[in-house]
Amino acid sequence: MTLILRSAEGHDRTALNELNKTATPHVDPLSEGYFHYLVEQGLCIVAENPLGLVEGYIVLVHHSEDFDGEDFRWFKDSSDEPFVYIDQVVVGPEYQGRGIASELYRCAEKYAAQVGAGALTCEIRLDPLNEESHHFHKEHDFEEIGRRRSQGHDVLLMKKAVSEEPFVPA
């Protein structure tokens, strides 16, 4: 499998929206304003194949960002430890099981180490239960640190200590 990991660009909007729709109801929609914010801030990494097709994406938010996500704010208010929050990760159904999400998470962990964050954090919706995501996060050493009600959903709050060496771009 050859993947190109890169920052999302304006021309990725349609592909990211289509991927995002495949993950409903487990992720929130990417509004026009939110998409532009992600592109401007460089917070969205896409996994693209050599033919230029976007197979997945991950949204990362550094703890120091002024980000409006309710769960992000919970993590920020709950700890003084620097972290990188994973707001969304989506892999197209036809591409699942190929290690794309694992590759995106390795990128996230390297980014977290590079910016001095001690942890990756995320939430998983429990209603409806996203069993694949729950299993994936347990396999990747995320630990449950709490549960709460968020934006009309019960969520599982998870955290992983960062262990990768910092990523050094070529």
What does this 3D model show about the protein?
The protein is an alpha+beta fold. The protein has a single domain (4-161), classed as Gcn5-related N-acetyltransferase (GNAT) (Aminopeptidase). It contains 5 helices and 7 strands, in the order E-H-H-E-E-H-E-H-E-H-E-E. It has helices spanning 13-22, 32-41, 70-78, 100-114, 131-139, and strands at 4-7, 44-48, 54-62, 83-91, 119-125, 143-150, 153-161. It has a 7-stranded mixed sheet, with helices on both faces. The longest helix has 15 residues, at 100-114. The model has no long low-confidence stretch (mean pLDDT 88).
Number of helices, where a helix is a run of at least 4 consecutive DSSP H or I residues: 5
Low-confidence stretches: none
> What structural class do helix, strand and pairing data support?
alpha+beta
- The overall number of domains is 1
* CATH level 3 topology: Aminopeptidase
CATH superfamily: Gcn5-related N-acetyltransferase (GNAT)
The H-and-E topology, N to C, reads as EHHEEHEHEHEE
CATH class equals Alpha Beta
Strands ordered across the widest β-sheet:
1-2-3-4-5-7-6
- The CATH architecture assignment turns out to be 3-Layer(aba) Sandwich
The pLDDT mean sits at 88
Q: Which descriptor suits the 3D outline? A: globular
Largest sheet: 7 strands, mixed
Number of strands: 7
What is the end-to-end distance?
A: 21 Å
Q: Radius of gyration, rounded? A: 15 Å
Strand content: 25-35%
Helix content: 25-40%
